[in-house]
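Reply to dn_fold:

You asked what the input looked like. This is it:
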Amino acid sequence: MALMINEDCINCGACEPECPTEAISAGDDIYIIDPDKCVECKGYFDEPQCISVCPVDCIFPLEA
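and this is what came back:
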């Protein structure tokens, strides 16, 4: 499973440095998560760090 950032992203950049697998990067208008790199912080933290620092709650599980 991976996470995604939706269009509510305010492009603040708080999530990018928190990602242990460097799956988050700046897109054209919002930050994006590479689903091939995202492990939802499993093996690193108890919960996804990007979600815990996001000020607008725009990060959700990627729907298959």
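Residues 15 and 50 are 5 Å apart (CA to CA).
Hope that clears it up.
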